[in-house]
Amino acid sequence: MNSGFLQNLFVGLAMLMAMAWPPAAAEDYKLEPVRGNVYRFSAGHYHSVSMVTDEGIVVADPINAEAAAWLRKELARRFNRPIRFVIYSHNHPDHIYGGESLDDGKAQFVAHRLARKDLIRTKARTRIPDIVFKDEMSLHLGDSRVRLRYHGPNNGLGSISMLFEPAGVLHVVDWITLGRLPWKDLQGYDINGMINSTHDVLDMDFAVFVGGHGDVGSKQDVRRYLGYLEALYGEVRDGMLAGMDLRTLQRSIHLEKYRDLKMHREWLPLNIEGVYRTLADQSYLLMRPDVKQPSSK
């Protein structure tokens, strides 16, 4: 074998491994009512939503090909209406791969322009969106609509909120996870963007929140999640300003108020590391002349 073939083989294997989230078994697929004409689709610990109207169905995030194929059959069995729109929450493959399983040649695929641009640039093997937007867009089906909004950086590229009306259901993927800490060391996350985006959605009119992971909850639950993000960021920042190194911060920050959140014990040290890395890499906090040099205690 020549070196070029081997290099391409290794690159391909690396990409597959990077995308190899554990698939849910068929018995873990569920389609459950949330509020009004909005339903939550679950594939293990992954979630998306669908809105059913007399004119057709809006689906968010296929998750993967197998999950999307099951969802398409289940929607057809229960409602016998066509899928009119498929909305991608952002560019990450563990949520938007498998779009082809929802594509009957009639559905229109929608995403933020940054998400579509990245999918094309990286040669993603999923259905590429037809429709893009910059700041806001509304999709109408009969008396229902979905309001799509870009809040700036938070997680991935082109990550958006989806407000389903009149049901009053808000759907956000990855940067708000109710009942659980954010993912490990926040790889790919912008902590300040998460805070700003969550402030934004709290100004929106919704009754029920459905995340791409975590629990279904209320606006008050989203407000508490924001409190965790702000407390996490504030304690890491203040500790760094006081000259604490990463290991000292991980030993001294406990955030006991949020101990009931899932993965608190396992992921809090990793969340701290993620914020520390952001402050060091993006804000150059450790290079500021007014900041004490880190010292272990």
Plain-language structure description:
A seven-stranded mixed β-sheet has the order 1-2-3-4-5-6-7. Strands 8-9-10-11-12 form a five-stranded mixed β-sheet, with no helix packed on it. It starts with a helix and ends in a 16-residue tail after the last helix. The longest helix has 23 residues, at 219-241. Residues 1-21 have low confidence and may be disordered. It is elongated. It has helices spanning 3-18, 65-79, 93-96, 113-121, 191-202, 219-241, 246-252, 264-281; strands spanning 29-35, 38-43, 46-53, 56-60, 83-87, 108-112, 131-133, 136-141, 144-150, 160-165, 169-172, 208-211. By secondary structure, it is of the alpha/beta class.
Quick description:
The protein is α/β, with parallel strands linked by helices and 297 residues long.
Summary tags:
297 residues; alpha/beta; 7-stranded mixed sheet; 5-stranded mixed sheet; 8 helices; 35% helix; elongated; disordered N terminus
The end-to-end span amounts to 54 Å
What sort of overall outline do the alpha carbons produce when their principal axes are compared? elongated
Mean pLDDT: 92
Uncertain runs with pLDDT below 50, 5 residues or more? 1-21
- Rg to the nearest angstrom? 21 Å
| Spatial ordering of strands, largest sheet | 1-2-3-4-5-6-7
Order of helices and strands: HEEEEHEHEHEEEEEHEHHH
Describe the sheet with the most strands: 7 strands, mixed
The proportion of residues forming helix, as a percent range, comes to: 25-40%
Q: Structural class, please?
A: alpha/beta
Estimate the strand proportion.
15-25%
Helix tally equals 8
- Would you count the extended β strands for me? 12
